[in-house]
Specification:
Layout lengths: L1 H12 L21 H4 L5 E6 L5 E5 L2 E5 L4 E4 L6 E6 L5 E5 L2 E7 L5 E8 L7 E6 L3 E5 L4 E5 L2 E5 L6 E7 L2 E6 L3 E6 L2 E4 L5 H4 L4 E7 L2 E6 L4 E5 L2 E4 L5 H4 L3 E6 L5 E5 L2 E5 L1
Antiparallel strand pairs: 1-2, 2-3, 3-4, 5-6, 6-7, 7-8, 9-10, 10-11, 11-12, 13-14, 14-15, 15-16, 17-18, 18-19, 19-20, 21-22, 22-23
Length: 270
């Protein structure tokens, strides 16, 4: 089920002309829900799922909720929701321009948005849970914000063009646009040796996967690389269609395969 749901997200993220070109993973079923059905618009920015299987979509019109049969749209003051995260405690966190909050029930038992903290002059596009103690990283293009003890702190990391944050185990990896991959330690970022290579080729890292001691790096427009013993090596993918397709996002599937969403559709690798 979760595998299918991820494929559905990729459809929502891609342009109309890309849908027909999708490479569908065997035995998967993909359903494309129109705006008329779910009440939002095509631009869906993020997805998360709770333990009961309910889906939450960050949408231009607000937060979309899908329980498997019905859709609900929770509007957020007319703002575009850019990220949503279901925490280990099953709280639904939401962020949009200038605001970070959660989904709550109002006095009418209806879903509504409650602000936890404002975010100065920023549009968040990523929420990373650090622990079960309500500690989160809120990512924007120019800043990484730490929410802890009900306070929002802007981390001064010496960079201003953040691409993605990936949490793998206890490690927090931050990709900086056209500079490489950095490891966050004690509110400072340290370059992961070998990834300075991406500055020389003017590429950004969109997704990070790790298998044992090998780190796999999915770039925006130059394919997939592996990092081992501080050495970078490009993986030879014999698919010209993929190699010329800019990457938007990626996810590891439950069966161990990797799905990568591009402007030209979804590709699944073993």
């Amino acid at each position: 089920m979760k595998k299918i749901l991820f494929l559905f997200l990729i459809i929502l993220l891609l342009p109309e002309r890309s849908v027909a070109k999708l490479i569908i993973y065997p035995d998967s079923k993909i359903e494309n829900y129109s705006s008329e059905v779910h009440g939002g618009v095509r631009a869906t920015w993020d997805i998360s799922q709770d333990k009961n299987g309910i889906l939450y979509f960050a949408n231009t019109y607000g937060l979309l909720i899908y329980d498997g049969s019905e859709w609900e749209l929770v509007r957020t003051r007319g703002a575009t929701v850019r990220s949503v995260k279901v925490t280990d405690k099953q709280n639904v966190l939401i962020s949009y321009s200038g605001s970070f909050g959660e989904l709550v029930k109002n006095e009418k038992r209806e879903n509504s948005y409650k602000e936890i903290s404002n975010i100065r002059r920023s549009t968040p596009y990523g929420i990373t849970e650090l622990s079960k103690n309500d500690e989160y990283l809120i990512t924007t293009f120019r800043y990484i914000n730490l929410f802890r003890d009900n306070k929002m702190e802007r981390l001064e990391l010496g960079r201003n063009k953040y691409e993605r944050v990936n949490k793998i185990g206890d490690d927090i990896y931050i990709s900086v646009r056209h500079e490489g991959l950095f490891l966050l330690k004690n509110k400072k970022i340290v370059l992961v040796k070998g990834t300075e290579y991406f500055k020389s080729i003017d590429q950004s890292i969109i997704k990070v996967f790790k298998e044992k001691e090998v780190i796999f790096l999915v770039t925006r427009g130059d394919g997939i690389f592996k990092l081992h013993n501080n050495k970078i090596k490009k993986i030879d993918i014999k698919n010209d269609f993929f190699n010329r397709s800019p990457v938007y996002c990626g996810e590891k599937l439950k069966n161990g395969n990797y799905a990568v969403g591009t402007i030209n559709g979804l590709f699944v690798f073993d």
